[in-house]
């Protein structure tokens, strides 16, 4: 497509054409109305002048016969700017007046008509040019009497208006086309820039961003939205590659261990007991792998937003009580007192199972990392609480353990990240990732804070409308 | 017990048939959905084990066809899709239990045995009895040798589930699903602690222990003299 062709196809140019057409139609009807009315008004004036002159001449004739009529006509003919007069015999011979020529047959029929004529000029002057006139013919005693007015003035005025119409039409068309051309070219150049960037991005350079002119117009808003989308895509892609790296590492490590163990059993085992031990180890290790795999799938599902389908309204306080009840014996066995403070209803809309699991992960962490041996004299206590922060419902787990250093709090949420001091504990490093993914799925967040001392981990979820306490 | 396994993975089926034979059950097999449905309709089976994704006819539609013909044989659905909503879909289609792959054979066996018992009269009994342990489902009273035991509501439900399946292995996942209604893996084995609490209430001070740990599988309540 040629550059011009592209320009003519733009929405801006097409809109310009439409507006141009509308404007021209409007201007034409306005001018036309003006012209017609002016013309009608002038014609009416002329008609009434002629009628009054004919009335006067008729009176003159009635008072003084032909002589008086001739006399009046002759006097009137000589006045500057006079009307047109002609008196002829019934045969058509001119007797008096200021007309030298007429269209033939004008005098034969009394009444109104338009005709061309020549004015009788003073002797010696060049013959007058042909003009149009509006005339009325009457018969007085067998003679034809014609009175008329030149129409030049009317025609000139009409000409001025129609000229104005033509010129403004031309001007409007030219200005409109030029304006449309420039507007379209401006829009087109910005669209071309955007398209260019989009092609660069499609070619694989995700760092490209659409140009923003800064005027805040609709194209800027579009560019901003597209840029934000690109940012999100880049973040997702980044996350994805990080995840695949992590998965590769954290799944391959146990797989390697598993393989080594089998090889070792094949090579070095001497009896059934050895084989049995190796096989038991294999099953244990593969169960661990399956567990990691399940957790990864669960996180992926929460992050992709699939689980939005089965969201219901439920009471987060009930979840806190249930999860607390599930873990309380385990905590007690480890020498920790697990207390639940969730008396008031905390309505939330979401996936009950996922929220339960997220909270269970937080409690599980607290039991693991805030065991009595790690407390430095703090009370061996874990609190599971529900609360309200504005329009959010919070589910929090507070422990008195060593906590997480502030610098590491952002990092521990990532998949497979385990701090050095926690390497000795069993676990996949996915618990907090899942809790965070679940919180985000519900439009909330996972917050890790200092409990002075200890860790306070909170899942904040948007509050739903009130539900029954049952 | 006679079982029908409808599963298109030959190796897996061979393994299951062999494993079930070892514990004394007879298992037939079908490799695709159409054959499976035909066998299920004519045969007298105690439990059907149906894979969700099958050639010719998928697992859920087999279940729907069976239920439409008033065949009420208990069905256990096997699936690689382990998510909660898939489970719900499976159970909604008329399945009686759902097990995600990969699974341990002991888990499958425990669930299959639980399904056969489900059809028995035990579900309607008011009082469950194992040896001298009695659980009244209406009055919520639990006694051992005539002596009343104080149980928390959850402990009561745990014991009720174990006693309904008395003499059968009950796995940790089955307990988590049926007593707590959770379908996720709580990482640390919380169930064991609940069991040992319950055990201390019902077995402590009695010569005959009733609540047994089945190594590598789960738990079982039974009369020691058997």
Topology:
The complex is a heterodimer of chains A (470) and B (226).
Chain A: H1 3-8, H2 11-78, E1 84-88, E2 94-97, E3 99-102, E4 111-119, E5 130-140, E6 143-150, H3 152-202, H4 218-268, H5 272-304, E7 312-315, H6 316-333, E8 337-341, E9 347-350, H7 352-369, E10 381-389, E11 392-398, H8 431-441, E12 445-450, E13 455-462
Parallel strand pairs in A: 8-10
Antiparallel strand pairs in A: 1-2, 1-6, 3-4, 4-5, 5-6, 7-9, 10-11, 11-13, 12-13
Helix pairs in contact in A: 2-3, 4-5, 5-8, 6-7, 7-8
Chain B: E1 2-6, H1 10-22, E2 26-30, H2 33-42, E3 47-51, H3 59-68, E4 75-79, H4 84-92, E5 97-100, H5 105-118, E6 127-130, E7 133-136, E8 142-144, E9 147-149, H6 153-164, E10 170-171, H7 172-179, H8 190-202, E11 211-214, E12 218-221
Parallel strand pairs in B: 1-2, 1-3, 3-4, 4-5
Antiparallel strand pairs in B: 6-7, 7-8, 8-9, 10-12, 11-12
Helix pairs in contact in B: 2-3
Characterization of this structure:
The complex is a heterodimer of chains A (470) and B (226). With 470 residues, chain A is of the alpha+beta class. Chain A has three domains: 12-155, Beta-Lactamase, CATH 3.30.450.20; 218-304, Helix Hairpins (Orthogonal Bundle), CATH 1.10.287; 308-462, Heat Shock Protein 90 (2-Layer Sandwich). Chain A contains eight helices and 13 strands. In chain A, the strands form three sheets. Chain A has a six-stranded antiparallel sheet with strand order 2-1-6-5-4-3. In chain A, strands 8-10-11-13-12 form a five-stranded mixed sheet. A two-stranded antiparallel sheet of chain A has the order 7-9. Chain A is rod-shaped, with a radius of gyration of 51 Å. The mean pLDDT of chain A is 82. Chain B has two domains: 2-118, Rossmann fold, CATH 3.40.50.2300; 123-221, Arc Repressor Mutant, subunit A (Orthogonal Bundle), CATH 1.10.10.10. In chain B, a hairpin with a 3-residue loop joins strand 11 (211-214) and strand 12. The two termini of chain B are 20 Å apart.
């Amino acid at each position: 497509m040629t550059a011009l062709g592209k320009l003519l196809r733009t929405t801006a140019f097409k809109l310009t054409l439409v507006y141009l057409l509308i404007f021209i139609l409007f201007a034409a009807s306005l001018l036309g109305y003006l012209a017609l009315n002016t013309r009608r008004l002038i014609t009416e004036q002329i008609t009434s002048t002629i009628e009054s002159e004919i009335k006067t001449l008729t009176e003159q004739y009635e008072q003084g016969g032909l002589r008086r009529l001739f006399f009046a006509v002759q006097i009137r003919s000589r006045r500057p700017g006079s009307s047109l007069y002609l008196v002829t015999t019934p045969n058509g011979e001119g007797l008096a007046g200021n007309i030298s020529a007429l269209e033939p047959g004008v005098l034969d029929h009394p009444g109104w008509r338009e005709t061309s004529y020549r004015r009788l000029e003073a002797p010696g002057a060049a013959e007058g040019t042909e003009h149009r006139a509006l005339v009325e013919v009457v018969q007085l005693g067998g003679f034809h009497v014609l009175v008329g007015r030149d129409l030049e003035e009317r025609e000139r005025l009409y000409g001025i208006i129609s000229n104005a119409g033509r010129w403004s039409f031309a001007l409007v068309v030219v200005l409109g086309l030029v304006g449309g051309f420039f507007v379209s070219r401006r829009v087109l150049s910005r669209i071309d820039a955007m398209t260019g960037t989009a092609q660069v991005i499609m070619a694989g350079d995700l760092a490209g961003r659409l140009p923003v002119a800064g005027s805040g117009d609709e194209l800027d808003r579009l560019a901003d939205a597209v840029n934000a989308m690109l940012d999100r895509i880049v973040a997702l892609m980044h996350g994805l590659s990080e995840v695949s790296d992590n998965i590769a590492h954290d799944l391959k490590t146990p797989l390697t261990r598993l393989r080594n163990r089998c090889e070792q059993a094949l090579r070095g085992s001497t009896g059934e007991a050895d084989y049995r031990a190796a096989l038991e180890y294999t099953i244990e290790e593969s169960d661990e792998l399956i567990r990691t795999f399940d957790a990864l799938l669960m996180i992926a599902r929460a992050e992709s937003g699939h689980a939005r389908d089965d969201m219901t309204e439920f009471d987060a306080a009930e979840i806190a009580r249930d999860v607390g009840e599930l873990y309380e014996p385990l905590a007690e066995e480890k020498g920790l007192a697990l207390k639940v403070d969730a008396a008031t209803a905390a309505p939330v809309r979401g996936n009950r199972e996922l929220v339960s699991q997220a909270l269970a992960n937080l409690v599980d962490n607290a039991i693991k990392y805030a065991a009595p041996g790690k407390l430095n004299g703090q009370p061996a206590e874990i609190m599971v609480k529900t609360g309200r922060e504005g329009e959010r419902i919070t589910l929090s787990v507070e422990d008195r353990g060593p906590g997480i250093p502030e610098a590491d709090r952002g990092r521990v949420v990532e998949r497979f990240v385990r701090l050095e001091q926690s390497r000795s504990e069993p676990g996949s490093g996915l618990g907090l990732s899942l809790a965070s993914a679940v919180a985000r799925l519900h439009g909330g967040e996972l917050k890790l804070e200092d409990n002075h001392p200890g860790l306070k981990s909170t899942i904040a979820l948007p509050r739903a409308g009130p539900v029954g306490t049952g | 017990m006679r079982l029908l396994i409808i599963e298109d993975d030959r190796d897996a089926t061979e393994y299951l048939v062999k494993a079930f034979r070892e514990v004394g059950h007879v298992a037939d097999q079908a490799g695709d959905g159409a054959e499976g449905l035909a066998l299920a309709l004519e045969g007298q089976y105690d439990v059907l084990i149906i894979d969700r994704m099958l050639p010719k006819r998928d697992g859920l539609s087999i279940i729907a066809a069976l239920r439409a013909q008033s065949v009420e044989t208990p069905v256990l659905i096997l699936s690689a899709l382990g998510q909660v909503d898939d489970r719900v879909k499976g159970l909604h289609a008329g399945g009686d239990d759902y097990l995600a792959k990969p699974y341990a054979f002991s888990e499958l066996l425990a669930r299959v045995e639980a399904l056969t018992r489900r059809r028995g009269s035990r579900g309607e009994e008011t009082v469950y009895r194992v040896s001298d342990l009695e659980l009244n489902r209406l009055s919520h009273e639990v006694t051992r040798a005539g002596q009343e035991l104080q149980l928390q509501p959850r402990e009561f439900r745990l014991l009720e589930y174990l006693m309904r399946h008395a003499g059968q292995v009950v796995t940790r996942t089955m307990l988590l699903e049926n007593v707590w209604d959770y379908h996720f893996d709580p990482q640390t084995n919380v169930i064991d602690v609940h069991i040992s609490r319950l055990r201390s209430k019902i077995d402590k001070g009695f010569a005959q222990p009733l609540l047994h740990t089945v190594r590598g599988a789960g738990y079982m309540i039974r009369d020691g003299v058997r």
